[in-house]
């Protein structure tokens, strides 16, 4: 029986390889360690020799036949080994880590907090959406002794996942953005979402850490009864409080610390669309203030931040202005986006909405609620894309329905739109960003 490499042995190799890790044969790097992960439709054990031949220093496999004991090393389970290596590496790091989860706005909050903390610290934050059982270990393994702060985003679609990711990343501080109707199928309903997301709070309590808390969120307040909290929100007795102003389509706000008036504070003009982003901006201000970032630097970071990756992006085409929020959607975030757009004073408002995925038995009910909300709004035109919305077309005949993005493209003349401002929102799997070129 071939010898299995231990975590301690692997960690020494990891350090000697300058912490270079890869799990993708398309991104092989000379001198890196290749982890041969398995998926439903692939087994990267079969690529181990290819990785080494391409310049990787080592390949980690869980197939005994593939291991050679020299540079293709055997473990019991490659994914579990990747996770345990990340946990071991985290234990060596001495700087604070902030863990972030929630139903909506995780990535936006992460990016805003990163922008603020980077004004004072060498800060690392989760890249893109590497927030799952593979992404979090890769995030942790990217941290070096040169960093002074880290922000780790944690996503989940079932109970127990946040607990596992918290165990790996061992955050000193925690922040839950909100508890909403996301991944209802995997969590087993809204109560399951509460239980799953609050696993971060349980970890922080066990560690005697602190959480940053939206004090105006009654659900989060209830879940955090016995935790050490730093509050942000609209009340002047919170550690950081603020108020937003409806001066333009972008969020503008003022903030100050506990007991101090905002009246004479500068107005922070951001590039963030949607009043629901005000609380995200205020959270970043709160965390920056807690860690000693000056108010001027906080304001500069938030005013300079420009959304990317189809998250509340404003795009101007030759014909229209687009509010592109097509990275993700669930009933909570969809409802907020519609309500905010309805309150905006624009001419020719149009909405193009895609299905909300992973709702399971709640899907028909939640999609119908969204259409009924739309019926109460003042929009010039409404287009729905996706099979879940399409199932309801006979009940709501005054709107346009398409089964998928391909059908919408094939009927481009049917949605010819000019001189309008258009909200585009849907789950990532609907790929609504692909209609930008026809608008």
Oligomer: single chain
Summarize the main sheet: 9 strands, mixed
Radius of gyration: 23 Å
**What's the CATH first level of the largest domain?**
Alpha Beta
Distance between the termini: 62 Å
- Spatial shape: globular
Question: Overall pLDDT, averaged?
Answer: 92
Low-confidence stretches: none
Count up the domains: 3
CATH architecture of the largest domain: 3-Layer(aba) Sandwich
Give the strand order, joined by hyphens, for the main sheet: 6-7-5-8-9-10-11-12-13
Q: How helix-rich are the residues, as a percent range?
A: 25-40%
And the CATH topology of the largest domain?
UDP-N-acetylmuramoyl-L-alanine:D-glutamate ligase
Quick tags:
Udp-n-acetylmuramoylalanyl-d-glutamate--2,6- Diaminopimelate Ligase, Chain: A, domain 1; nine-stranded mixed sheet; UDP-N-acetylmuramoyl-L-alanine:D-glutamate ligase; six-stranded mixed sheet; alpha/beta; single chain; 3 domains; 439 residues; Protein-Tyrosine Phosphatase, Chain A
